[in-house]
Amino acid sequence: MTTSTKTGIGARVRAVFDRTSDELTLADLCRVLGIESGKDRKRVAWATRDLVKAGYVAQAGQRLHSRYRSTGKPQVARQALSPDAQREYSRQAARRYRARHPERVRQLERARRRPVASRPASQQPRLARIGLRAANTPASSPVPMARAETVEEFLQRGGRVHRLGAHWEAV
Predict the structure, then answer these.
(1) What is the pLDDT of residues 6-35, one digit of tens each?
(2) How many CB atoms lie within 10 A of CB 15?
(3) Are strands 57-60 and 67-70 parallel, antiparallel or unpaired?
(4) Contact 98, 89 (CB under 8 A)
(5) d(Cα 35, Cα 9) in Å, to the nearest integer?
(6) Is the CB of residue 61 less than 8 Å from the CB of residue 67?
(7) For 9-70, CATH number?
(8) Model pTM?
(9) Dihedral pair phi/psi, residue 8, rounded to 5°
């Protein structure tokens, strides 16, 4: 039996059950692990549920009244897959995906066969759209701006300035 180098909450929960033969509730387990926060308590509950499914821990009772104890089942170290086995597993996973989602696979194949230029603008990469937009935009020529007129110059020309009252002022 090889020892695991995992240090997550699941490994810590497993280590507690390996050390003791007592029945523990989730509250007891969290107390032993020194866990107080709600998120970590949920993780302890999830890890304990996974250990029950794997057969490492036995559950007595239900929900809030559940008590857990070790079954004594040894932890089996999983062998790493060889590169050939990994490739075969990937092929099988791809076959399963294609079998379960044929319509999505057809959509992806159609999109892959379609040339990039004929794709709708929403499917083109953003930088390509920006580049196309920049290429089609004519270079702007600097337009001379007219000099702004001051109020005094406007009055000298004979203009009249009317003051409008604000709604909060008494008119």
Answers:
(1) 568 888 888 888 888 788 888 888 888 888
(2) 14
(3) antiparallel
(4) no
(5) 10
(6) yes
(7) 1.10.10.10
(8) 0.42
(9) -75, 180
